[in-house]
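Take a careful look at the sequence and tokenised backbone pasted below. I need to know what the token row says about the fold.
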Amino acid sequence: MDLHLKIWRQKDKKSEGKLVGYDLKGLNSHMSFLEMLDTLNEKLIIEGDEPVEFDHDCREGICGQCGMMINGIAHGPLKNTTTCQLHLRSFKDGETILIEPFRSEAFPVKKDLKVDRSAFDRIISSGGFVSVNTGQASDATSIPVTHQTAEEAFDSAACIGCGACVATCKNGSAALFTSAKITHMALLPQGKEERSKRVLDMVAQMDTELFGHCSNTEACEVECPQGISVLNIARMNFEYNRALFLRKKN
């Protein structure tokens, strides 16, 4: 199959970017989207041009490193699918595909399709963990967790931190990402000890990183490749108000 690509090219976050057109012919419809970009980069290198920068790692839909806007949709047209698991059979022969980086003030463009998502790392480091004494591993059954609780916590922990929720949100909000990290630990007994401090610190860091506010349009859930529910945001709001109440009470 043949494709015409319009790809955002930008040297760095301080430089102006622009869309550049590329034509690829004879592509296999079974190729993944990133394999298609690999093919383009091989062509560019042979021709003496600079290859297109983009984020990737495992290419198995697990790590959350890949991510770009494809025809205006985070990760492309397929539901619950990361960019690396998107295949060319989802497009038509001869189609023009618009490829842009994730757009958000908190995700500055590093180069081309590659953005800086370290703001997520700083949110996690502010409280997205459980403080425990290390040493000899405790028995796996020392803290009982019901099956239902474990499943609910896992549904939130499934977030891969790709940033599609931020790129899709009209406000550039990180509420879905942050709430998923808060919720999965708030549900488990290991996370109860620090639940109040965790939610206050993580929400504060989220605001510091200049992410926008959630206005409940729920576009984040629609475009999330893991299908993380917006009910996590409701849980985060509950945890936040609870923490404020307890702080005032004390």
The chain has a mean pLDDT of 95.
